[in-house]
Design goal:
Elements lengths: L3 E3 H14 L11 H15 L4 E3 L5 H13 L1
Antiparallel strand pairs: 1-2
Length: 72
């Protein structure tokens, strides 16, 4: 299993979960999986990081990322 997560990985995982469960309501709320991945994705962009260690993701984000990887 990969120990690093790239920005492209997070973007692809977010898009995967959004396609499985589109945003809903007037506020266009993200599904729980995409929401869990959105924060580390935004932080990587702000910090100009291309990759982060998988273990730095919280449990929800890690599960969402692994769920996406299993779908490949």
């Amino acid at each position: 299993m990969k120990t690093l997560c790239t920005l492209a990985d997070l973007e692809a995982a977010i898009n995967y979960w959004r396609s499985k469960s589109p945003s809903v309501g007037e506020e266009l709320a993200l599904c729980p999986q995409a929401s869990a991945l959105a924060e580390p994705y935004a932080l990587m962009i702000m910090d100009r990081k291309r990759e982060i260690a998988l273990e730095t993701l919280d449990e929800k984000a890690r599960k969402a990322l692994l769920g996406w990887q299993e779908s490949l």
